[in-house]
Amino acid sequence: MGETDSFFSDKSAKIFVAGHRGLVGSAIVRKLQSLGFTNLVLRTHAELDLTRQSDVESFFATEKPQHVILAAAKVGGIHANNTYPADFIAINLQIQTNVIDSSYRHGVKKLLFLGSSCIYPKFAPQPIPENALLSGPLEPTNEWYAVAKIAGIKMCQAYRIQHGFDAISAMPTNLYGPNDNFHPENSHVLPALMRRFHKAKVEGAKEVVVWGTGSPLREFLHVDDLADAVVYLMGNYSGLEHVNVGSGKEVTIKELAELVKEVVGFEGELVWDSSKPDGTPRKLMDNSKLASIGWNAKISLKDGLVDTYKWYLENVKQ
Predict the structure, then answer these.
(1) 84 classed as catalytic
(2) How far apart, in Å, do the first and last CA atoms of the chain sit?
(3) Which CATH superfamily hosts domain 15-180+220-249+284-299?
(4) DSSP for 196-254, written as a single string
(5) Buried b (16+ CB within 10 A) or exposed e, 115-144
């Protein structure tokens, strides 16, 4: 594979990881460093505001990175998307447009754009194949974010078609791991469960009540697996179509809750409040395209949860 050589052979190549402090970006930085890449260009938001076109232009003109991994984004849950729709569409469109366009103009060899599984229609077939994109209406609660991410995929495709720019896109499933958001109000299901079981354990509570029946099926990918896939794609993929990145393993919310309970060591009871809504019955990515390129997830959910809880205990203020 001639293309693999170009990315993996030059460990001193300058790589700009945008969003290096987030859940995804920080994992990608860890992965690149562990592989011996020595020339990572990293900027905090205070040092470089990616929504400002002129600042992004001058950064690229000065630094001239060879590779760009775009993991910077404005992200949030349903409540945040409902409250700040303008932020979610505008900030994400600005970041993507500035970084993708400047990358092309300043001779970047390869760019990888990271999206999310929420780009797919609300009633997409399960497991969701890549070609389900734009085949139906989106989930209304996060369409602002989803529309921006879809535009990012299309922009990468357009710059490939018109300019021959090697820009690819990867769409991860639900992620978890070190640097996740454990905020009480706006965290996702997995960190929220971990936080609640930990609190119950510390306070000696008798039970933890979880919304719904526990029957919906979900897919979770440890962020270090995603980072591994991203680096693999940088070396082994140059196609027009975006690529799903998932674990390919489904778990019910009930199984997830029981596993988190076990990892945290909460001895009390787990109670399901079935008067509360369950959400989508099933959400799983079709990962066969990535498997055919030669990559599969390696971290089991149990091992990933143990790793994440260890990070939580060491890093989250109790």
Answers:
(1) no
(2) 49
(3) NAD(P)-binding Rossmann-like Domain (3.40.50.720)
(4) HHHHHHHHT-SEEEEES-S--EEEEEEHHHHHHHHHHHHHH---SS-EEE----EEEHH
(5) bbbbbbbeebebbbbbebbeeeebbeebbb
Token readout for 298 is 């390696």
Kind of pairing between the strands at 174-176 and 217-222: parallel
CA dist 211 and 271 (Å) reads 9
Which pLDDT tens digit goes with each residue over 82-114? 899 999 999 999 999 999 999 999 999 999 999
Active-site position among 145, 159, 176, 232 = 145
Q: What is the pLDDT of residues 55-87, one digit of tens each?
A: 999 999 999 999 999 999 998 877 888 899 999
Whole-angstrom distance, CA of residue 150 vs CA of residue 133: 8
28 sits in which H/E element: helix 23-34
Residue corresponding to tokens 């933890």 = 208
Strands 217-222 and 250-252: antiparallel
Cα–Cα distance, 248 to 173 (Å, whole number):
9
Tokens 């460093």, located at residue: 33
Which tokens belong to 194? 């971990």
